[in-house]
Design goal:
By secondary structure, this protein is α/β, with parallel strands linked by helices. Helices cover about 40% and strands about 20% of the residues.
Length: about 450
């Protein structure tokens, strides 16, 4: 499976270096105006706008809001909140949609724009494509904007933060007593930093919270879900029962057990799937994962009578497959977990509470809940000079064919370009680690021959 298409929108909205194309204020104004035009359909509606705490988010927020207002659509600015909060608020406030300014797990120089529909779910690719098409003719769109009282206005809603927190608290009733559990939380210096204390205090918990002091440039810096080794060390240092790590915009979750061993999104999805199956609340006895999930997920869940459906990378694709089939549980290895009975998009805090609920209600430590038997995997994420079409590189095509023959039906290889970064990602999976290492070397040699890798 290979991906090589260049678009403004990637697998998770628009992303890049802030103040460089396409993440400039000028582009943000245009994106705001066109998005408002598409979502509101010419009517006087409102759009929720949130941001993460990185230094460039205020700059892009101002530009985006200006664009939305210029299209005659009102804005509900909610400030720094997690990405899933923006989706939730778009739905409960009856908005035409939501916009989140964040580069998620990326370092602070990057930023991004994520778009939500009125249902709180990320916009489908077709709608993003329509927005991108209209952006090419933005000069005409801007010339036709409303004047006088027709321009949009800001509508602050002081309930926004509590509406989101209440949606999290409301699911906890009867789930157990957190006061005796030693919990460590790594907030990634991100968008959820200010919510963790109030949320867990209201549930009777007193977690050890680290990396919850965002200053604009420390988001995801040696912390959060991209640095699970930090969480592992914190768990051992505090003698905690459970460790929870979010990412910069709060839509991912990774965990550590009491020994500091990592549980990734596949592990957590398996825990929830087996719990849902046991309680007979798993819709159609089926979960959705992506092509990046470990093959062991399929084998482990099949033994429990649970089917796994796979989609392309991106929680939006997972959500779309779940909606199409009426399913309530899905996720990605990266830590996006979707609980569609509760929310329309991935939510790190919501997933954390669900994992803690399983630990408490079963009386089973996280280490023993881990049932997933994983296949060996090798994964690389390599910076490239350009996203040259994979099919146009003969050496890479030949190496892929060789590796596919070597692995046969006992493994698989996935080579694709990142939809959010200038990187190419490689995943090789199979029963023999030594064979995987040899296959990886073949692919790396081929990529170097084609000259697309940066030193």
């Amino acid at each position: 499976m290979r991906q090589s298409t260049e678009r403004l929108f990637g697998t998770d909205g628009i992303r890049g270096t802030a103040n460089r194309h396409p993440l400039t204020p000028a582009v943000a104004v245009a994106v705001g105006a066109v998005t408002a035009s598409v979502l509101a359909g010419g009517e006087r509606k409102k759009i929720v706008v949130g941001r993460d705490p990185r230094i460039s988010s205020e700059m892009l927020e101002s530009a985006l809001i200006s664009g939305i207002l210029s299209a005659g659509v009102d804005v509900v600015p909610v400030g720094v909140l997690p990405t899933p909060a923006v989706g939730h608020l778009a739905r409960v406030l009856g908005a035409a949609g939501g916009v989140m300014i964040s580069a998620s797990h990326n370092p602070f120089p990057d930023n991004g724009i994520k778009l939500f529909g009125p249902d709180g779910a990320k916009l489908p690719e077709e709608t993003e494509a329509e927005i991108e098409r209209r952006l090419s003719d933005y000069s005409w769109v801007s010339a036709q904007g409303p004047v006088g009282s027709g321009v949009g206005r800001r509508q602050a809603d002081l309930r926004a933060r509590e509406l989101y927190l209440d949606s999290l608290r409301s699911r906890w009733s009867g789930s157990g007593d957190l006061s005796r559990m030693r919990i460590v939380i790594d907030a990634a210096n991100g968008a959820a930093s200010d919510l963790i204390g109030p949320l867990f205090a209201s549930l009777g918990a007193q977690p050890f919270v680290f990396f919850a002091g965002p200053n604009g440039i420390n988001i995801n810096l040696h912390c959060g879900s991209m640095h699970p080794e930090t969480l592992s060390e914190l768990v051992r240092m505090t003698n905690a029962d459970v460790g929870l790590a979010l990412d910069g915009d709060g839509d991912r979750l990774l965990c550590c057990d009491h020994e500091g061993a990592l549980l990734d999104g596949d592990d957590l999805l398996a825990i929830l799937a087996l719990d849902y199956q046991r309680r007979e609340v798993l819709s159609h006895r089926t979960v959705v994962a992506t092509v990046m999930s470990n093959l062991g997920l399929d084998r482990t869940l099949q033994e429990a009578g649970v089917r796994v459906i796979r989609t392309p990378v991106g929680d939006r694709h997972v959500a779309a497959a779940m909606h199409a089939r009426g399913l309530n549980l899905g996720g990605e290895q990266s830590g996006h977990l979707l609980l569609l009975d509760q929310a329309a998009s991935a939510d790190g805090l919501r997933a954390a509470l669900e994992i803690l609920r399983v630990v408490l209600t079963t009386g089973t430590p996280l280490a023993r809940l881990r049932r997933l038997q994983k296949y060996p995997q090798r994964q690389l994420s390599l910076v490239v000079r350009e996203k040259k079409p994979i099919e146009s590189m003969p050496a890479v095509e030949e190496a892929l064919a060789q590796v596919e023959r070597i692995l046969g039906d006992q493994g698989r290889i996935l080579l694709r370009y990142s939809g959010t970064e200038t990187k190419i990602r490689l995943l090789i999976e199979g029963p023999e680690p030594r064979v995987l290492e040899q296959c990886e070397e073949r692919l790396l040699l081929a990529l170097r021959r084609e000259g697309i890798l940066l030193p």
